[in-house]
Design brief:
Layout (H helix, E strand, L loop, with lengths): L4 E4 L1 H9 L6 H4 L3 H7 L3 E6 L2 H9 L3 H11 L4 E6 L12 H14 L3 E4 L10 H10 L2 E7 L8 H13 L4 E6 L6 H15 L3 E5 L6 H11 L3 E4 L13 H8 L10 H16 L15 H4 L3 H13 L6 H14 L9 H14 L9 H7 L12 H8 L17 H7 L7 H9 L1 H13 L10 H6 L10 E6 L2 E10 L6 E8 L2 E8 L4 E3 L5 E3 L21 E2 L5 E6 L6 E2 L4 E7 L2 E6 L4 E6 L6 E2 L6 E5 L1
Parallel strand pairs: 1-2, 1-8, 2-3, 3-4, 4-5, 5-6, 6-7, 7-8
Antiparallel strand pairs: 9-10, 10-11, 11-12, 13-14, 15-22, 16-18, 16-21, 17-20, 18-19, 20-22
Helix pairs in contact: 6-7, 6-20, 8-9, 9-10, 15-16, 20-21
Length: 617
């Protein structure tokens, strides 16, 4: 019998960390036979961002993926990551939705539920854990590991004891940022084991280059299960390599008993699969030790970098990195994991770009300060709280206690779109995305985002690659962000360009016209008049006075709160925008009358355009 068990993450966290969760089910199923033969304690295959990516990008039913994997892995437990009361979304759901989601997940194939809460507020984990136990499945209570003045071994041990009292079957130490160090891991595992005597599972991202050592010391301290990933999708922002850990423990008292040659066969398969997804490769260093100082997860850094780049503010990245720890301290040191990483990161960007700390405060920060995400680990900054929410009362109960049952309401909203309870739950997680997905499914028009051919990757490195490679295009008043990732061979009459348009991969075929030629001086000469684009082109209105309402960050309009002719006061909310997965209320800079609304719900907007026009008093 194996002394140390391994949970492999190649079907979920591995490709989520390195290729933006883009692996398709069709590339998982052919290798499941060999994966099932290995003897893993579990294969993590669901939860996290996989549900979102299936519906948004891959146009796959995530429930169908789970069913297919269950049939293909008859001898191996399937593991999923569950955000407690948030399930797989970004808000708290009523208890009836949580119970229904857990039961359906169990019915369709999940064996092990790793339940965590971004705040480490165990009240937000209780209903999920109870539902898992009722379903007869394995409930694993997860501790979100972080470092701060209020997080220490004693803090985490008390949390572990509370989870044990809730009836969990095992404890996971979830080091989502790669902050855990080897000797800290040893002390923590030893202490939790002594306090609970439950099996312990360690999970540590390899971002800072420490995960292999973390697992070794955790095993020596008594850890029973370690999370690793097949070498084709390991290391970097992912996890310690499965084959390496198997070899390191082989022949010792901790021998995993797993077949190394079989694991290498699996790695050879996945290495070929990964080539298909080259366009989604994360632009990260193999080892990034910045996190050990900044405590900002690598994925969060990438997200912030992209947001700042889109608005021409990449030069402010250092300022944002300095601001993140300040915001985290102001909010009482929440762990930086979804959704609190987005809450802290977005607010830090706003503090830097709006010219004043908390001059603009996101709705999520307001809700956080009002206790609607749970109890903050440490003391919040009362001055910041006053600025953000005034004298509003903070709730002290479990946030979901304020929610009424909502499953029947969701069924009503999705009526005509859904065929089963699983569809209703998909709608509950992501209403707008699910509506589009379910409508396209009914119409038979589901089309996954394109995978660019390998020759496009090769062409992107050749000297004839089109320049510039990244720019904005404004057409009929709409601005699109274009990034060219590859091109076909020069000299062809019709030449393919492989581009990302607002983050969506496309192939554009460009026909060279004889009447346009490059002159020796580098300019162009047109031999025939160009065809009209048809219709007048109206550019976006640019801000020129104080009554022009703009946004500090690019995003999507979620709601318009005012109407033409309406009187507003300075500070009144006029719009709600979603940026970096967070909602932010945009307020009127002046008192006056609304004379123009230049956006509608669903519009993509940028900082250089007028959204609402107010005539000052």
């Amino acid at each position: 019998m194996a002394k140390v068990l391994i949970s492999d993450l190649v079907l979920r966290d591995g490709h989520q960390s390195l290729i933006a969760t883009r692996m398709r089910t069709e590339d998982m199923l052919p290798i499941c036979g060999k994966l099932d033969r290995v003897g893993f304690w579990s294969l993590e295959a669901w939860g996290g961002a996989t549900f979102d990516a299936c519906v948004r990008f891959l146009k796959e039913d995530p429930w169908e993926r789970l069913k297919k994997l269950r049939r293909a892995l008859p001898n191996t437990q399937i593991n999923m990551l569950l955000r407690g009361q948030n399930l797989l979304g970004y808000r708290h759901y009523a208890d009836d939705v949580v119970r229904a989601f857990v039961q359906k997940s169990a019915d369709n194939g999940v064996d092990v539920f790793r339940v965590f809460d971004a705040m480490n507020d165990t009240r937000n984990m209780r209903v999920s854990i109870e539902a898992v136990k009722k379903s007869g499945k394995h409930a694993q209570g997860a501790i979100s590991y972080t470092v701060s003045p209020v997080h220490n071994v004693a803090y985490f041990v008390e949390m572990a004891k509370t989870l044990a009292e809730m009836g969990v079957d095992s404890i996971a130490i979830k080091d989502m940022a790669g902050l855990l160090t080897p000797y800290a891991a040893y002390d923590l595992v030893k202490a939790i084991k002594a306090a609970t005597n439950l099996p312990i599972n360690t999970h540590s991202h390899a971002t800072a280059g420490l995960s292999t050592m973390v697992h070794m010391k955790a095993v020596e301290a008594g850890a029973d299960i370690i999370d690793c990933c097949n070498s084709a999708f390991s290391e970097g922002a992912s996890h310690a390599t499965t084959e390496s850990m198997v070899a390191a423990l082989q022949g010792s008292q901790y021998d995993t008993g797993l077949d190394l040659p079989l694991l290498q066969e699996i790695a050879a398969y996945f290495r070929e699969v990964r080539k298909k997804y080259w366009q989604f490769e994360m632009d990260t260093h193999l080892v990034d030790t910045r996190i050990l100082v900044s405590q900002v997860p690598g994925g969060m850094i990438s997200n912030l970098s992209n947001q700042l780049k889109e608005q021409g503010a990449l030069s402010r990245m250092d300022d944002v990195m300095l601001e993140i720890p300040r915001v985290r301290e102001d909010l009482g040191y929440p762990p930086l994991v979804t959704p609190t990483s987005q809450i802290v990161g977005t607010q830090a960007v706003l503090n830097v770009l709006t010219g004043g700390r908390y001059k603009s405060v996101t709705n999520e920060v307001k809700n956080y300060l009002l206790g609607r995400y749970g109890a903050a680990p440490g003391r919040v900054n009362e001055e910041v709280k006053k600025m953000a929410v005034g004298n509003q009362e903070t709730i002290t109960c479990r946030p979901a206690d304020q929610l009424s049952d909502e499953l029947d309401k969701l069924r009503g909203e999705a009526e005509g779109l859904t065929k089963c309870d699983e569809d209703v739950l998909t709608y509950a997680m992501f209403p707008d995305l699910a509506r589009t997905f379910l409508q396209e499914r009914a119409a038979g028009t589901l089309t996954p985002e394109p995978l660019l051919p390998l020759e496009a990757r090769e062409a992107s490195t050749c000297p004839t690659f089109f320049a510039p490679s990244e720019f904005n295009v404004t057409l009929h008043g709409e601005t699109y962000h274009i990034r060219i990732s590859g091109t076909g061979h020069a000299g062809e009459t019709i030449r393919p360009y492989f581009v990302h348009v607002d983050g969506v991969s496309e192939e554009v075929r460009v026909e060279t016209l004889d009447e346009i030629e490059v002159t020796p001086g580098g300019g162009t000469r047109t031999g025939a008049s160009k065809k009209s684009a048809g219709g007048a082109t109206k550019g976006r209105l640019r801000p020129t006075h104080a009554g022009h309402v703009t946004t500090a960050m690019p995003g999507t309009i979620v709601d318009v709160l005012v109407k033409p002719g309406q009187k507003v006061n300075a500070g009144d909310g006029v719009l709600v925008i979603e940026a970096m997965k967070m909602e932010n209320e945009i307020q009127s800079p002046v008192s006056g009358t609304v004379v123009g609304i230049h956006v509608a719900k669903g519009d993509a907007v940028t900082p250089d355009q007028v959204l609402v026009e107010i005539q000052p008093e």
